[in-house]
Amino acid sequence: MITKSQLAIQLSKLRTFTNPILKLEQYATDSETAAEIIWTAYLDNDIENRTIADLGSGTGVLAYGCLILGAKKVYLVEKDKEANKIASHNLSQFKNFKIIKSDIKDFRKKVDIVIQNPPFGTKTIHADREFLKKAMQVSKKIYSLHKTSTKDFISTFAKKNNFRIKRIISFSHPIKQTYKHHKKSIHRTKVSCFVLEKISCS
Ligand code: SAH
Question: What's the CATH superfamily of 28-198?
Answer without folding.
Answer: Vaccinia Virus protein VP39 (3.40.50.150)
